[in-house]
């Protein structure tokens, strides 16, 4: 049987390399499930990989993009309980180290990568969880978490930042401040629960942030662009504070040594694709707990059909997305 899928065989501009066509349906192998995809989530990392930002050489002859998605399990492989048939699930790491992601009517992948979706969480929201929500949860809870701490979320209106604000509040942060770049983004961050926001593009942004924070500084800064902000981050941190960096606008980061050493700063880097088994399990269970408790709002910028995948990629590249972009597949 054939299925509809979006794919590319070379890197390049979205409208030039992304194709829509029919290819053979995958089959669930041993230890796998097959998911009939309802929504495919589009993330900046998917866009960068397709554009050749990280490498001009494809690891596979044909790539179906997107690591995030949601849908219903319609087939199980050997060793997987038949009770999972019909289960509503959300998907993580579908396209990480694999040729086939969620931009297709079906995807087969290890059973652990299809997580049961709580009944009150929509399939559309499920497609937003894999990269943004798991990144936010780990950034908030790692290394002792944020309970009682003053936290700065850089880019509080972004897909990760929007979740991080909510999670920091849910995990007991004493104060959550978010940086934004416009009035609409300020509204999004405040709606997510930020105690205060500031525009990082204004000349006195550093002083405004310091005045907003309790005690004139932060215990943890969750950073979307460590290359651009490491200097101001160090200036805003309390002694023994930490910068948790999950993103950077440049490949190399110049860290001012003396400001960092004088405050005994901890600088932590992580990529959500490579969480170890323990951290992955904690993030999955913690996210499920928050979903079941109804503690999370999901900020979907737009929903487009699979055929508009190139438009979705371009919207992210051009910085026009205020939240998650999802594609309706089936």
Protein described:
- By secondary structure, the protein is of the alpha/beta class.
- It has two domains: 2-128 and 298-328, Quinone Oxidoreductase, Chain A, domain 1, CATH 3.90.180; 132-273, Rossmann fold.
- It is built from eleven helices and 15 strands.
- The protein has helices at residues 14-17, 44-51, 123-126, 129-141, 159-170, 183-192, 205-212, 226-236, 257-262, 277-292, 309-317; strands at 2-7, 19-24, 32-42, 68-76, 88-91, 106-110, 114-116, 150-153, 175-180, 196-199, 218-223, 237-245, 266-269, 300-305, 324-328.
- The strands form three sheets. Strands 3, 4, 5, 6, 7, 14 and 15 form a seven-stranded mixed β-sheet that branches. A six-stranded parallel β-sheet has the order 10-9-8-11-12-13, with helices on both faces. Strands 1-2 form a two-stranded antiparallel sheet.
- Helix 4 crosses helix 5 and helix 4 crosses helix 10 (277-292).
- It is globular and about 60 Å long.
Topology readout:
Layout: E1 2-7, H1 14-17, E2 19-24, E3 32-42, H2 44-51, E4 68-76, E5 88-91, E6 106-110, E7 114-116, H3 123-126, H4 129-141, E8 150-153, H5 159-170, E9 175-180, H6 183-192, E10 196-199, H7 205-212, E11 218-223, H8 226-236, E12 237-245, H9 257-262, E13 266-269, H10 277-292, E14 300-305, H11 309-317, E15 324-328
